[in-house]
Amino acid sequence: MAARTRSTPYAVLGMLSLAPMSGYDIRKEAASSIGYFWNESYGQIYPALRELQARGLAKRRADRHAGHRDRQVYEITERGREALHLWRAEPPRAMPLRNELLLKLFFGERSSVEHDVGWIEQVIREESEALRQYRRIKHQIMKEQRDHPSLPFWLITLSYGQHHSRAVLRWGRETLNALRAVEGGAARRGSAP
């Protein structure tokens, strides 16, 4: 793979470095691990698997289960491990920020404050739930994966999620206060003689 190509094949290759998996398994495992900060759809996973196989970075085999259709399971090759290692050594690209909520808030007006308050309250609920999930995940991996060599790296990424959620919660509370002040100012102006 050429330098600075799409990250999707490397995300898939990274998942295969953990264990042989089918496309379905990759999507399922990614949702409960890297899915908190990286999302891959089936429409991205299967082309990436074909690409990795064509380049010799992964190999495919049929996995037979009695009474079921054959599953196609992919494994990382030694060449794939080398490619993953080289990709990991490259500096990460800057993260583009695309946030529809911020876009809507930027174009907000006093008449939309009620909607804005509702959206911010939803963000606060979601981030509070995310923090509960992160605590649950940390407890689970500390219990089930205590001796896994990748545990420190998993905890690092989990910590990022926790810090991000706490920061968004702080921002959300500040934003609610600011919106309520705007709302109160609009109400006072509306009642002026």
From TrEMBL:
InterPro entries: Tscrpt_reg_PadR_C, Tscrpt_reg_PadR_N, WH-like_DNA-bd_sf, WH_DNA-bd_sf. Residues 12-85 form the Transcription regulator PadR N-terminal domain. Residues 97-180 form the Transcription regulator PadR C-terminal domain. It holds the Pfam family Vir_act_alpha_C. It comes from the Bacteria. This is PadR family transcriptional regulator. It comes from Eiseniibacteriota bacterium.
